[in-house]
Specification:
Layout (H helix, E strand, L loop, with lengths): L16 H24 L3 H7 L9 H6 L4 E7 L4 E7 L4 H12 L6 E5 L2 E2 L16 E6 L5
Parallel strand pairs: 1-5
Antiparallel strand pairs: 1-2, 3-4, 3-5
Protein name: Ubiquitin-like domain-containing protein
InterPro entries: Rad60/SUMO-like_dom, Ubiquitin-like_dom, Ubiquitin-like_domsf
Length: about 140
Amino acid sequence: MSQTSTTTLSHGANEPSQYFTTTSQTVVSSTLRVSTPRSASRDPSFDRMTEKAPTPKMSEGEQAAAPVEHLNIKVTDNNNEVFFKIKRSTPLKKLMDAFCERQGKQQATVRFLFDGTRVRPDDTPDTLDMADGDTLEVHQEQIGG
């Protein structure tokens, strides 16, 4: 223990500075005595009372969806680009219907592609592993060669 308090803690000329140093050391050691048994032996009921509530665990699909709930999807045909903001779990049929309605086309006359693969109406951005800003291409449906 340092004795820096020996000259600054004296209240009067008659009191020895050693008294305050001893008192200071007693207080410090008392503090140590109080804290030592507390950390050495804990009451198990104390641990039960202070435990945090368990964090609800999310499935892998929820963990992947947690960072971005909505996606901005660009839908392009020959002349137009239309942007849609949809949830990851929304069937792409809604997007396909909305695009066709805006462009005045029937859904049976066009096909939607994502990364070169045809998009089915029941697909979702999650099932196709789409990311924010991805593009769906719209092509005229052709029969034959």
